[in-house]
Amino acid sequence: MPRRGERRRGFRHEDAEAGPPRIGARQVVASDARGRKRTLVLDPAAFTCRVLAQQLADEWVEYVEVTSRRVGTATGYRQAVTLLCRFVDDTLQGGASAASLAEADPDISEVLLAWEHSLCRSGQSARPGRERSHHSSGL
Question: Which of 40, 103, 125, 139 could form a disulfide with 133 if both were Cys (CB 3.0 to 4.6 A apart)?
Answer without folding.
Answer: 125
